[in-house]
Amino acid sequence: MRVLVVGGGAIGMLSAQRLAEAGLEVRLLDQGPLGQESSWAGGGIVSPLYPWRYSPAVTALAHWSQDFYPALGERLRHETGIDPEVHVTGLYWLDLEDEAEALAWAAREKRPLEAVDIGSVHQAVPALGPGFSRALFMSGVANVRNPRLLASLHAALLRMPNVVLEESRAATGFVREGGRIVGVSTPSGDLRADRVVVAAGAWSGKLLATLGLELPVKPMKGQMILYKCAEDFLPRMVMADGRYAIPRRDGHILVGSTLEDVGFDKTPTEDALASLKASAEALLPALAGAEVVKHWAGLRPGSPEGIPYIGPVPGCEGLWLNCGHFRNGLVLAPASCQLFADLLLEREPIIDPAPYAPAGRIG
Ligand SMILES: Cc1cc2nc3c(=O)[nH]c(=O)nc-3n(C[C@H](O)[C@H](O)[C@H](O)COP(=O)(O)OP(=O)(O)OC[C@H]3O[C@@H](n4cnc5c(N)ncnc54)[C@H](O)[C@@H]3O)c2cc1C
């Protein structure tokens, strides 16, 4: 079977790898360079930001992925020499409004979330700012160095003889034969395949619109800033008021993020820079004296309730989706791509695929 994957972010590349491992001929197409859009721009927290606020559908994918991430990181490092740096730090949520709901969810889901004394947070994170009074801690939460995850996936795909990677080639529409999708059109000619997979992130809705289908996936801009500190400056991830600080192993600290509904514009703005710096300094006052070494924006694939679309498109035989992961595409990637491959290859799926089925969710 020949499969064409449109989109080379974390979702497209990991889907391609899962299918190629099963022996399929895979061609992966990206309109730009591979792995430079949302999957590059994200923070890489291997958890939804407030996991208890999501539906069981998101939780099921998140939990499967969280368990799988350390092995994925190790395997990619071993295969390619590029370490995605799955960094287990745990995560503190400060002054939450819905602590009771969070703790009830954790008890139900058997996740290690506990209320802790604020003094113990200051001990664990000496750089934490004043003014916080309550905290929840979840041990075991990791972050992944997503640009390295992508570089590593790219390198792994390059080593597979049954994978063809094409950068700077956009799918501009689909090739149809009767009710069947048999390929995509591109500015340099049509490409044919037995299955076409749309893993085009924030652009997925736009691409489906060429078939007259309304897929509610749209860009939601997020901006982020980066600092470089001493390696031991921030031993845990911390989060308050929707903003978070993520430590990489080498002392880089990411602070994010904004959530903006402004279409496909991903220009970083001065307003966001000022607002992110204010959040960074409230969390970690020492950052007031530190230089922002990078500031960028990415386009999340926004979807209703953040529930991705995984599976075949009804009425368009041959067309499949793996997109719409919104704020959680990095944490959800391993489970989403495994589930996707299970469905396409007609294997027993890792989890119930019903909540993610495109059927009934596309206009
Ligand atoms: C600031 C920010 C912080 C985030 N933090 C986190 C986090 O901490 N944890 C987490 O789990 N998630 C996080 N996310 C969300 C996560 O980054 C996304 O959900 C995820 O990266 C989506 O992956 P994707 O592969 O679907 O999309 P992308 O990475 O955007 O990849 C889509 C690819 O498709 C290509 N493409 C699009 N249209 C076409 C076409 N017509 N033809 C060919 N190629 C095409 C694009 O060029 C792109 O490379 C964050 C996102 C942002 C922006």
User: What small molecules are bound in this structure?
Assistant: flavin-adenine dinucleotide
Beta-strand residue fraction: 25-35%
Shape: globular
Which class of secondary structure composition applies to the elements?
A: alpha/beta
Instruction: List unreliable stretches of 5+ residues.
Output: none
Number of strands: 19
Q: What top-tier CATH class of the largest domain fits best?
A: Alpha Beta
Helix content: 25-40%
CATH third-level topology of the largest domain: FAD/NAD(P)-binding domain
How many helix segments? 9
The CATH superfamily of the largest domain is FAD/NAD(P)-binding domain
Keywords: Oxidoreductase, Thiamine biosynthesis
Domain FAD dependent oxidoreductase: 2-343
InterPro entries: FAD-dep_OxRdtase, FAD/NAD-bd_sf, Gly_oxidase_ThiO
Pfam family, one: DAO
